[in-house]
């Protein structure tokens, strides 16, 4: 953990020594990917692009949970009663802080368990791995947000974790980051990213397949755009070239597909996921959902039924506080960055951190400096 005093906060792009210069939103191609971010290889430095909308609210499901603020005590209790919860950090070495910056790990799982997910295999097929992992860092001043995405096939050291339900102890080992959740639950992914970054994570949110299907349907579809027609048998994604509206199974397929985007790598898929979330937010804002309490409640009901959180987030005051935090942040102060990676020597189909720029990025977060 970086113990140096926090300097005066500044934007990373103002520092020529920073390897990820921040910049405003730039022109994108029809896939939603900024022109200068198209990749031809597997060696990736951190890149930042800023949100022009409140897409962070969707990523955290805070948008859905905003209903807690205005729906009254009974409705709030019902929503929080929908949530599944478990311990925050399954490593004995894990720790969190009560004040300072706010760090939330947001995950999307490919679990087959639960209502509506049986089409993806039986419950015995897998406990589910995390397809999406985003570390959301909110500055102590609550005036800026950095979202760091981690590829699912990133090779990392996963610390020893204890399953809170069975007491089984999983030994530390080196494996893909998305497998950590199978070692006792999302608290083990928290432990792995905590150790990887040195950032003390305060909360986690894990959404499963059904959350994407139900939410995209609840808002009447999400607009996406692709350069060429897509027919990906692995994900089930089928789209014509140009603009389409996706919901339900096709929305999920859009988020899961690798072959449809860029060079078929995980990083291209991460950017397509970020583009989808931005489009979803625009749809919700354009439809006036944020001021329509009945519709907001329906979305909140969908999200909370498919959301797994740490035990601290089952508290209504904590949910309300987080919702208010994100409501008060200027959208121009929200930035997305992908952790810098390079091919893993033992398997070029896997990734490892590009240590020098990655360490600089993580140190920036620990010092509470926005990128």
Question: What's the arrangement of secondary structure elements?
Answer:
Elements: E1 48-50, H1 55-59, H2 62-65, H3 67-70, H4 73-82, E2 84-86, E3 102-109, E4 130-138, E5 145-149, E6 155-158, E7 161-162, E8 169-170, E9 173-176, H5 186-197, E10 203-207, H6 209-218, E11 222-226, E12 230-232, E13 237-239, E14 242-246, H7 249-256, H8 266-286, H9 293-305, E15 307-310, H10 316-327, E16 334-338, E17 341-344, E18 347-353, H11 355-366
Parallel strand pairs: 2-15, 3-10, 5-16
Antiparallel strand pairs: 1-16, 3-4, 4-5, 6-9, 7-8, 10-15, 11-14, 12-13, 17-18
Overall number of strands: 18
* String of helices and strands: EHHHHEEEEEEEEHEHEEEEHHHEHEEEH
Cα shape? globular
Helix content: 25-40%
Largest sheet, in brief, is: 8 strands, mixed
Q: From the alpha-carbon coordinates, what is the Rg to the nearest angstrom?
A: 19 Å
Task: Tell me, rounded to a whole number, the average pLDDT.
Answer: 75
What is the helix tally?
11
The CATH architecture classification is: 3-Layer(aba) Sandwich
- The parts where pLDDT drops under 50 for at least 5 residues are 1-43, 51-69, 112-126
CATH homologous superfamily descriptor: LCP protein
CATH topology: Aminopeptidase
Strands in their spatial order, largest beta sheet: 1-16-5-4-3-10-15-2
Oligomer kind? single chain
What is the domain tally?
A: 1
Beta content comes to: 15-25%
Ends apart, CA distance between termini:
19 Å
Briefly note the structural class of the backbone. alpha+beta
Q: For this structure, what is the CATH class?
A: Alpha Beta
